[in-house]
Amino acid sequence: MKRVPPMPSGARARGAWHAWRYWLVPGMGVKRHVTWAVLGAAVAIVGTIGFTLWLLGDQRDALAAPIEDLLVGEPWVRAGGWVTGALIAIGVAFTVVAIGRLNRSLLSNWLDRPQEAAQLLHRRLMLARGPRIVAIGGGTGLSLLLRGLREHTSNLTAVVAVSDDGGSSGRLRTAFGMPAPGDLSDCLAALSVDEASLGRLLEYRFTRGKELRGHTFGNLLITTLSEVEGDFGDALRVMQRLLDLNGAVWPATAQAVTLRVEKADGSVVEGESVLAAHPGPAFRVTLSPSAPEALPEVVAALANADMVVLGPGSLFTSTLPPIMVPAVAAALRDSPATLVQVLNIMTEASETDGFDAWDHVEAIERHVGRRPELVIGNATPLDAERVVAYRAEGAEVVVVDPDRFRGAGVELVAWPLLGPAPHAQHDAPALARGLVTWWAERGRR
Description:
Elements: H1 9-20, H2 31-56, H3 61-72, H4 74-107, H5 117-128, E1 133-137, H6 139-149, E2 156-160, H7 167-176, H8 182-190, H9 195-202, H10 217-229, H11 232-242, E3 248-251, E4 258-263, E5 268-270, E6 282-288, H12 296-303, E7 307-310, H13 315-319, H14 326-334, E8 338-342, H15 357-368, E9 374-378, H16 384-392, H17 402-408, E10 411-415, H18 428-443
Parallel strand pairs: 1-2, 1-7, 2-3, 7-8, 8-9, 9-10
Antiparallel strand pairs: 4-5, 4-6
């Protein structure tokens, strides 16, 4: 076995300081406790001295006289300030170290590396002060957005579409009469503190076994909990408790719903999985049953949000379905939050053929009864290779006309959001930074 050389003493010292310094940064709630500990110790010392002098009674001069001689002597006049200052610094340092070691000792039963407790606490406190954001949608777009936002706030709520009827989700819907679990599983993984491990587990797709082939473990786990709890909403509540999440993930409704899409030509397509087989743009989307109940956690999150983000993602099959639940739409209309729409970079065949940016905004207003206050577009030009590839699939770059937004009084911003090739997806970290920065500078009230 190769022997690992010991860490140099200088590196160990820097690492120790890097860990300890978090106990003293603003907002940790530690310095005030250290101050109170020091004050308490000082009061106890003064009390001890007074009690000793009281016990000595008439003999207290035998103790007090040498102390008084010391305090008026030449050595004290020269170095007394330095000595007392050093004693204060040493006392405070010992107190801080003692409190830190006490915390590490208490946390050692819960943390693998208790020496990192300060960093973890600091991060949690900072994230807890972030904006309250509700992200609505489904598919890859929503999970990507959550991965970016979780680095800035833990006050996150994902409201997820559950109308997918294809693939693993579709098979489970048919077999168990439940909402589609697929997008929920992706979002749970995206908000997990340990996404590398949990995401790999939840997204594992079985390739063997006649009945299991094609299913993901996450879908099966949600299905199992739904059967055990007897309710899809309760199953997600259990999932929130089991997983260490930077936020919460909820279905728009706990009922099984089917997507009904009315095309611009008046035809109606029932079922998300068959929509692509019917060319032409969509006009309106509804659910069947038409008035499923919303989860109370979703309504409460919308009522308390600072910002509600719609998209990115398929407009008619991911973004709009969650807000077709009547209580969700009503809560969104009444919410004091800033309503933000993230424009897709490309149109989507059989959904938004020929749509420009303003058509996307009008679709939201037509379905919700509220127009977004902020619309975010992409400022990075697409390379020719991606344009040609998407055009072969019937998709085009979404055209933005700023004049239409100015005339309607809707704020339009364009940020460099194009992610890496080969897909025309959003750069999640850049989008998240932009949203949080905008809220801090302009949206915060």
